[in-house]
Amino acid sequence: MRRIWMAVTAVFFALPSAAAELGDDGLHKTDWMRDTFKDLREDLGEANAEGKRLALFMEQRGCIYCTKMHKEVYPREDVSSYIRENFFVVQLNLHGDTEVTDFDGEVLTEKAAARKWGLLFTPSILFMPEEVDEDQSAQSAAVAVMPGAFGAGTTLDMFTWVNEKLYSLDSEEDFQRYHARRIQERQNGSTD
């Protein structure tokens, strides 16, 4: 009976939920992305008020890797529900002209912010701590950066690793070790 339940659960979690639609800016839109004024200090405050972590998604129109993530990874119920429940996601456009207020107070366009933060590829996700000094940029404050497209397991592990604050200096398990352990647990069927 336990095997049947595990098989049903595995199929359920592998099923994609509603796929993201393209916005007017050519970027994929999900129901868990927030439409904000892109003042990162305010966004961090809102995330904290909701008990969530702030994540900045840098994407671009026509990005095949962004499309892959939005069609194959984010629609999975286990991934999308984890992000929705634990993260406050703000999407930014690598070539966009919308103004962003960085944590250090600098107001610049999305594309200038991408250059300032050294983001060259999409998708890139910057994971923010719960508190940021007023002299820090998003890039210098980030506790982790996820550069590129990954499979569902790696993506979910990264979001979980950040959410559980395993990046702290007190943690003995860096992301690679954490991810390797989670892969082994999934292979053994011993994940929750």
From TrEMBL:
Q: Can you give the residue ranges of the Thioredoxin-like fold domain?
A: 48-131
Q: Where is the signal peptide?
A: 1-19
Write down the InterPro entries for this protein, in alphabetical order. SoxW, Thioredoxin-like_fold, Thioredoxin-like_sf
Q: What protein name is recorded for this chain?
A: Thioredoxin-like domain-containing protein
Transmembrane residues, as ranges?
Answer: none
What keywords sit in the KW lines? Signal
Organism annotation: Litoreibacter ascidiaceicola
Q: Which Pfam families match?
A: Thioredoxin_2
